[in-house]
Amino acid sequence: MTEPELMAIVAALFSMMNPIGNVGIFAGLTEDYSTAEARTVAIRSAIASAITLLVVVWTGGLLLKFFGIDVNELRAAGGIIVLIIGLHMLFNKAEHKTSHAETEDAKDRASIAIVPIAIPIVAGPGTMATALVGAERYPDIMARIEISIVILLLATLIGVLFAFAKPVAAKLGQSGMAVVTRIMGMVLVALSMGMLTSGIAALIPALSK
Description:
CATH architecture: Up-down Bundle
Radius of gyration: 17 Å
CATH class: Mainly Alpha
Order of helices and strands: HHHHHHHHH
Strand content: under 5%
Helix content: over 70%
Number of helices: 9
Shape: globular
CATH topology: Growth Hormone, Chain: A
């Protein structure tokens, strides 16, 4: 994998996981928690997100083979998913994260680290599709190790930001986090078009002539 290709995957995963934009959601879900409890949830959610995405990177290909899904079909479908999520983020809508009912239900759970914070807020369908497309597009071991390192670094960043979510959210404010979310949305929309067009071109070679 070349450096530009790796940076494209870093940008896509960073935008999908949206560590800065999701700080406000984490702060809202843990507003009644003590500082120690909130940091415990932050660490657990970061670990759960990393494990989820690493499993996708290293075993997702087996699921594709089991269901008879071609990597180009996945790239096209993943492009559509990422495009929809990017548009939601661009217009600062929350539909791509979790529904209102799910968020309200999460407040009553003993632990919210895995659901809904890790899944689907951080490592949702779009993030999984992005990781899986990258792993299948560059199937050699070294490329998957590089993608895994990126995931671990981003999960660490998320854990740190979530651990200090309240002061970070207060510093950025709602408008600041909205700006970050919109920028990440624009990046995702651009990246999704590349995934979608390359997938369709591979599936329908006549279109690339």
